[in-house]
Amino acid sequence: MARVAVTSPLPGEALDQLATLHQVTVRQGPPLSGEALATFVGNAEALICLLADRVDAVVFERAKQLRVVAVYAVGVNNVDLPAAYGAGVWVTNTPDVLTDATADLTMALLLAVTRRVVEGDRFLREGRFTGWSPDLLLGTGLQGKHLGIVGFGRIGQAVARRALAFGMKVMYHSRRPHPEAGLPEAIWVSDLDALLGQVDVVSLHCPLTPQTRHLLNRRRLFQMRKGAFLINAARGEVVEEGALVEALTSGHLAGAGLDVYEHEPQVHPGLVNLPNVVLLPHLGSATRETREAMARLVVENVRAVLAGGPPATPVVGPGLPPPT
Ligand code: DGY
Q1: What pTM does this model have?
Q2: Does any ligand 1 atom lie closer than 6 A to the CB of residue 71?
Q3: Which of 68, 101, 156, 208 could form a disulfide with 235 if both were Cys (CB 3.0 to 4.6 A apart)?
Q4: CATH code for position 53
């Protein structure tokens, strides 16, 4: 029996099943980082953690028995991947199982902000609805509008499929074109600045890496078309949040739909009172079905490594260096 350290309870039965095979310690409490996380891991051979736990180099230096860090998320920006690789520890994530839920939520944000859904709900609850009117809370239609997707992995592609079904024209920016996506209607644009100047809505779906931190900085936010919308269900640090507030308050951007924040869980105070912004508490993958499937996948990965095999969804590991 190996020791498995888990930083938080997870939905579903997967951890209970793991506990029939290994010695599982589940904690409850705020996210852990650095020395505190290393102490919690102790002599465990596996760590299951959330995206808010910071798995720094010190964890790999101190937790000598550690063989796998299974992150309960698709994004693994909370893990020092070079340190994991240097220590010969597997790092795994939860791709695929959350693609549809995250793409659905992206569309929910897109529709909510362009059709003023949250504003309308507030308006009615405040008792201000006195009857149908030709110009009440007019929004922006999506048909024929251009969506620019930044990052064309699984989630970006799933968003493209949904947007095409809504009659949008889709362009995307990524390091290379993705013919294997089977979406010939979606046009690859190699230059991000060129894409930003051509689309009505920008939706972010790239991972957070040193290269993508503040990818949408002040210059690029103002490079977007006047009256465009920004949707972010990826990672908050991809956007320079202070500059986004400026772009929204100055009227350069028409609105934003945000699920993630630069200093999560803090939200820039300048966003909170803007009526043209829809703010969600990081709900991208938040369906019961998806969160249970994510739990099953982290457990599958841990079981595979503890049994001596490779995990199902590795990001980094012995012979598998960090992506560049
Ligand atoms: C992820 O998986 O990276 C999401 O942000 C949470 O599901």
Answers
A1: 0.97
A2: no
A3: 208
A4: 3.40.50.720
